[in-house]
Design goal:
The protein is mostly helical and 175 residues long. The protein has two domains: 107 residues, Four Helix Bundle (Hemerythrin (Met), subunit A) (Up-down Bundle), CATH 1.20.120; 34 residues. It is 65% helix and 3% strand. Strands 2-1-3 form a three-stranded antiparallel beta sheet, with no helix packed on it. The longest helix has 26 residues. It is elongated, with a radius of gyration of 24 Å. About 10% of the residues have low confidence. The structure holds zinc ion (ZN). Zinc ion (ZN) binds next to loops.
């Protein structure tokens, strides 16, 4: 009987170790390494964003602290990968990176102290900060154009009527 009561926590421990090992594996072999391109960094940030939200939801301090720290590292590495940006944009980017990294840091601190409402609020702010950050350098989506079926030379940036024939302008297919 004694053996069984010892066996169960042991199993739980092994299961726990396996779970944390697979989580670490998802981070890649070298956790401190940063992807070579901004795209790679953004992709990894998105993965960690999801993992962080889950960790906060499940109230797992260690995971949340780790995820927040990793996002901070990744975000701080972004400006170096985007040196081709105009000086204006790069300055704006660096400012936002600072704000974002500070948010990640705050989430880590909240999680470490089990302040889950603080962590959750921070996570919401972090998500919009990251979105904001991306709009700074992501190539702008081609604007939708409207044209007339009969007069393709008519191009407008908003819907309306064709100035020649009065037909309703249609969204132009992106080429
Ligand atoms: Zn027309």
């Amino acid at each position: 009987m004694k053996r069984i009561s010892l066996f169960t926590p042991l199993l739980a421990l092994i299961a726990g170790l396996c779970a944390s090992a697979s989580l670490r594996a998802a981070d890649g072999p070298a956790t401190n390494k940063v992807p070579a391109t901004a795209e790679g960094i953004v992709k990894e940030i998105k993965d960690h964003e999801v993992a962080l939200a889950k960790a906060i939801d499940a109230k797992k301090p260690a995971l949340a602290v780790q995820g927040a720290a990793r996002i901070g590292v990744l975000v701080s590495a972004l400006p170096d990968k985007l040196k081709s940006l105009s000086t204006d944009k790069l300055t704006g980017l660096k400012d936002r990176v600072k704000v974002t990294a500070a948010l990640a840091d705050q989430i880590g601190k909240s999680s470490a102290t089990n302040d889950w409402s603080g962590a959750l609020a921070g996570s919401g702010k972090l998500q919009s900060a990251l979105k904001d950050l991306q709009t700074l350098y992501a190539p702008a989506a081609p604007a939708v154009q409207y044209t007339c079926a009969m007069h393709p030379e008519i191009l407008r940036t908003s819907p309306g009527a064709c100035p020649i024939c009065g037909m309703v302008l249609m969204e132009k297919e992106k080429e």
